[in-house]
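Write out the 3D structure for:
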Amino acid sequence: MGEKIGVTFLDAGPADDWLAGTPFETDAGEESAAEAGTADEEIRNTEEPGTLETASESGEGDPKGEGNGGGFAWIWFLGAGILLFLAALLLYRTFFRKRRGEQEHEEGPEDEGSACSGYMRTPAPPPVPAAVSHVGNLHHIGSREEQQDSFAISDVTDSMLCDKRGAFAVVADGMGGLSNGAKISAIVTSSMMSRFEKGSTEGLRGEREIPMELLQMVQDAEREVLRFLGTGQEQSGSTVVAAWIYAGRLYFISVGDSRICLLRNGTVTVLNREHTYGSELDEMAARGEISIKEAREDAQRHALTSYVGIEPLERIDRNVHGLPLLPGDKILLMSDGVFGTVSEEEILKAAVRDAGDMAQDLQAMVLSHMRSGQDNFTAVILQCE
């Protein structure tokens, strides 16, 4: 308890210079506390008032010389810098995401299997093939004494038939002015429909089979007509146009001047070419062999250059690759008694309604023209969904 401890004060500032290197002794117990108090008293008495300064008051020991607050200034600046950095980072990420979204909207979805920016796109489901949902038809004698038009439509309500074979329709126009026109057109439609339904138990081996099947249908009908006419009988024949819809695609075939049209988005597109002398006259006019006036005014312009019953049957119009159909499309097959009377604008006006109502409107339109010698007129409408 009586052990003495030696203490030496180092340089602590101007006010303590006189204490530098001056040792004093103190007890480690109660005596040391008393002696220390006496020494402090002597120091206070020795100093003149106002001459003692602390390190903080004199600015010594403060590296920036900014007083008590200077030690915290660097902390404030550091915090402000961090906040600014975080704000800039947030703005950058927001702008980058917005810009990336705009680019993806402009460029569209990436190809399946390509690298995605942090997420995977769900591939769009394949489109459902358009199928025949409604059917309409009109069949009128006009002002003629005999109905020489004929038509046939497969049963679109038979789901098994539609799955295996699709939908089929055919329109034939017996040649007016010749004998047996009505019988010839009936032979054509009956023969072609029979071949379509005959394969219903087997189905199709592939879509490529359809164009060949249609061609075979026409050739079979040609043979049956020639067999009916025999030898020595008066020349006769029929036009024909047929449509076969399978797996959302349209296949057609035609002979003569009956038409098949696609009605889509307020437009009428004629799909086949007419086999008439007028087509040949137009080509002659284009080559400069005759004038345009001569081509238009020729009395034989509407004469058929190909029909079922002519021998040999060489001119047949058809498509080899199926035409993709869309929901809302309508396929219109018609004899010349329809398109020779109503305009394209009238057809489009009627086309806004369902197939059944459209057929009724077209018939009313044809009759409203009240043409003298109105030809037989027939049409079939296939509506897709």
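The two ends are 111 Å apart (CA to CA).
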